[in-house]
Amino acid sequence: MPIYAYRCSACGHARDVLQKISDAPLTQCPACGEDGFAKQLTAAGFQLKGSGWYATDFSGRKSAPAEGASTSSAEGAAGASPAASLGTAA
Where are the beta strands (DSSP E) in the chain? Predict the structure, then answer.
């Protein structure tokens, strides 16, 4: 069963409630009795365990650079050399 976060718009009272998905949402605040009690949008909390794609693809290990990246940096260095030699000769 999911845990839903509720907050009252009238008094600001906040509470986490364990409810079934099929249960009707709460509307009456348990603290002040007003009808301003509503669900809040929160991030889901979960933990992945095991040796799935998340363990192998997002492990933080650095991979070798792609060929396109090394070629473009080599062209940039070669392109800068003639300009630098022209600047010192003039």
Answer: 3-8, 14-18, 37-39
